[in-house]
Design goal:
This protein is α/β, with parallel strands linked by helices. 43% of the residues lie in helices and 23% in strands. Strand 5 (72-78) and strand 6 form a beta hairpin. The mean pLDDT is 96. The structure holds guanosine-5'-monophosphate.
Length: 189
């Protein structure tokens, strides 16, 4: 029997509040070849987030145990918390031929792109920084202190936008979704 064609790995990044998650939900609905890697994190769940769906919510001890056992493809610290990509799921899905998206921040993106140079990288940009701040505040999920940290991190991330192969501006949501779907088609056909 012929072996299944391996899927592609996508690094999918963008500042907090830019709408990555909203775009991602639609990508999953509209393209069956896409799988999202569910990360582990030490941050607290937001209202409506479910363990195992948005993230595996773990303690710092558990996270550090997973690091020591080599359980992560990559991990990073972001705004006082750990975030990491469990390795097994990603390889399993790629081997089954799925295109796996890693929704990760800057440090993780750098690490993955070094380790897996064949990965395709996409960065989602807001129309402006003011608009990003408005979205982050309207979301109402973070304290003022966390918003300030995320905005300052957003500027750093946006200064590195050129590091990614593709940038997509999330001005019009439907257009942004279609832009990402076009990238997936182009890179996987
Ligand atoms: P949030 O707390 O808003 O869900 O995520 C904060 C940041 O961490 C976002 O930029 C998100 O993409 C990133 N992130 C989520 N999971 C991972 C991961 O497994 N590894 C890395 N490096 N970043 C992640």
């Amino acid at each position: 029997m012929a072996e299944a064609k391996k899927g592609k790995l996508f690094v999918y990044a963008g500042a907090s509040g830019v709408g990555k998650g909203t775009i991602m939900k639609e990508l999953l609905k509209r393209n069956e070849s896409i799988r999202l890697s569910v990360s582990a994190t030490t941050r607290d769940p937001r209202e409506g987030e479910v363990d195992g769906r948005e993230y595996f919510f773990v303690t710092k001890d558990k996270f550090e145990d997973m690091i020591s056992k080599g359980g992560f493809l990559e991990y990073a610290q972001y705004c006082d918390n750990y975030y990491g990509t469990p390795k097994d799921y990603v390889d399993e899905q790629l081997n089954k031929g799925y295109n796996v998206f890693l929704e990760i921040e800057l440090q993780g993106s750098k690490n993955v792109l070094n380790m897996r140079p064949d990965a395709v990288s996409i960065f989602i940009l807001p129309p402006t920084l003011d608009e990003l701040e408005r979205r982050l505040r309207d979301r109402g999920t973070e304290t003022e202190d966390a918003i300030e940290k995320r905005l300052s991190q957003a500027k750093v991330e946006m200064d590195h936008a050129k590091m990614y192969q593709y940038t997509v501006i999330n001005d019009d949501l439907d257009k942004a979704i279609n832009d990402v779907l076009d990238i997936v088609s182009k890179e996987t056909c």
